[in-house]
C-alpha cells in the first residue's frame, strides 16, 4: 500500500507550516522509530528571505532533519523516502518560484516541466508519507503582468496535480485547518 500524502494550502501567514509541523510531530510520536525530514525549497537570496528561513528553522521542532532542495524536489523525496520517515515539503510555492522566476534571469520551462512530471510520477509509489505546504494565491486580484499571471496559473495547476496524488487536502484560514479527503476524478 502506498504512503498517505496530504497537501496543506492557504495564504501567507495562514498557519500552513505550523499545521504541517503539528501533523509531523504527531506522526513522529505515533510509533517508535518514526522520523521527520523537512525538505526545504527556499533560497536565501536576500536579507529578508534569510530572516524568514532562520525563523522557520528556529521554530521547527527539535529532531526534525532538514534537506535543502530548491530545484530537484523529486530526487530529494526519493533519496529520503522510508516507511518510517515522514517528508514535510515546505514549500511548493517557492519550488515553483525557483524554476519560473530565477534570479539568474530566464525561466527554465523545459526543466520545470520535467521536474514536475518526475515529482508527479514518484508520488504514488513513494515509501514515505508526505506533507506538502503550498500557497493559495488565486483568490486575489489577477496580476497585471503576463509573467505573474502565468505564475499564478501554474501554481494553481501544480496544487491541483499534487492534490490528486494526496489523500487529504487542508485549507488553512486564520490559523484554522479545514481538512477533507481529496475527491478523485471518475
Written account of the structure:
The protein is an alpha/beta fold and 186 residues long. The protein has a single domain (5-181), classed as Rossmann fold (3-Layer(aba) Sandwich). 41% of the residues lie in helices and 22% in strands. It has a seven-stranded mixed sheet with strand order 3-2-4-5-1-6-7, sandwiched between helices. Helix 2 links the parallel strand 2 (35-40) and strand 3. The radius of gyration is 16 Å and the shape is globular. It starts with a strand and ends in a 5-residue tail after the last strand. The mean pLDDT is 92.
SSE blueprint and pairings:
Blueprint: E1 5-10, H1 16-30, E2 35-40, H2 47-59, E3 65-68, H3 73-80, E4 85-90, H4 92-100, H5 109-122, E5 130-135, H6 146-163, E6 168-173, E7 176-181
Parallel strand pairs: 1-5, 1-6, 2-3, 2-4, 4-5
Antiparallel strand pairs: 6-7
Short description:
The protein has 186 residues and is of the alpha/beta class. It has helices spanning 16-30, 47-59, 73-80, 92-100, 109-122, 146-163, and strands at 5-10, 35-40, 65-68, 85-90, 130-135, 168-173, 176-181. It has six helices and seven strands; from the N terminus they run E-H-E-H-E-H-E-H-H-E-H-E-E.
From N to C, what is the helix and strand string? EHEHEHEHHEHEE
**CATH domain topology:** Rossmann fold
CATH uppermost class: Alpha Beta
Shape annotation: globular
Class per helix and strand makeup: alpha/beta
% residues in beta strands: 15-25%
> Going across the major beta sheet, what is the strand order?
3-2-4-5-1-6-7
- According to CATH, the homologous superfamily is P-loop containing nucleotide triphosphate hydrolases
- Spans of at least 5 consecutive residues whose pLDDT stays below 50 are none
